[in-house]
Amino acid sequence: MYNRPVTPTDLSRDDVRAGLKRWLDTWKVTGPLLEQERAGRLAAMSPQELQEATRSLLDLWQPAWTGDDGQGLLLHQRIFGLARAKE
Description:
Distance between the termini: 68 Å
Low-confidence stretches: none
């Protein structure tokens, strides 16, 4: 018949620990591989591609964002705006 999904309350403490250990072990391998791929892609980008990617990222900011959701991005927009003005 229908099998309901397993919920955290169905798992023993040992099951949860084993699952977390598997997750951590997976990311110990996967994390560095993804970082290596990311670094390689960035290194292969031209200066123009890097500028376009940065501008696209900065365009994501929305006026309604406040606090941690938007202040950092807004600050970066100002910094890049100043750099463009000096060009």
